[in-house]
Amino acid sequence: MNKRITLTIALLSLMAAGPAAATGDAAAGKAKAEAICKGCHGADGNSTNPQYPRLAGQYASYIRKALHDYQSGRRKNPIMKGFAASLSDQDIDNLAAYFSTQKGLHTPVLPRRVDQ
Q1: pLDDT tens for the 116 residues of the chain, in order
Q2: Phi, psi (degrees; rounded to nearest 5) at 115
Q3: What b/e string do you get for 14-48 counting C-beta neighbours within 10 Å, with b at 16 or more?
Q4: 40 with 103: CB under 8 angstroms?
Q5: Burial call 49-82: b when 16+ CB within 10 Å, e when fewer
Q6: Chain-centroid distance, C-alpha 63
Q7: What are phi and psi of 112, to 5 degrees?
Q8: d(Cα 68, Cα 84) in Å, to the nearest integer?
Q9: Alpha-carbon dihedral sign for residues 47, 60, 80, 37
Q10: Beta carbons of 112 and 44 less than 8 angstroms apart
Q11: What angle is formed at CA 88 by the lines to CA 52 and CA 74, rounded to 5 degrees?
């Protein structure tokens, strides 16, 4: 019986932790992306220029960390430092929520061909 209670508490804790990570407003992130990100990364995060990374489909936690690292200088890029400096924590959460929900472009992995 104790194991069942412990497992139930652990499961409920994990379920409660999930939504806390999704703190951004994707609709607000879309508006911010269209205003400041689309020139390089594309409005939906799928840059067509190989010079700029694709953001669509990235983990929200990765986008948040990268933008905070640009703000602090831990990550070096003078262009991104300028853009990131203008973002509030809420803006960053919103952008992370938006880009992480976009469908990213990817290169399909073809099955290996075995010659006989």
Answers
A1: 666 766 566 555 555 444 444 589 999 999 999 999 999 999 899 998 989 999 999 999 999 999 999 999 999 999 999 999 999 999 999 999 999 999 987 655 666 666 65
A2: -80, 140
A3: eeeeeeeeeebbbebbbebbeebbeeebbebbbbe
A4: no
A5: eeeeebbbbbebeebbebbebbbeeeeeeeebee
A6: 4
A7: -70, 140
A8: 7
A9: positive
A10: no
A11: 55
Both tokens assigned to 62 = 């990765």
Residue identified by tokens 């075995």 is: 114
Are 84 and 91 a contacting pair, CB within 8 Å? Answer: no
Kindly state the tokens that stand for 2. Answer: 């104790």
Rounded CA gap, 100 and 65, in Å? 13
Contact 63, 95 (CB under 8 A): yes
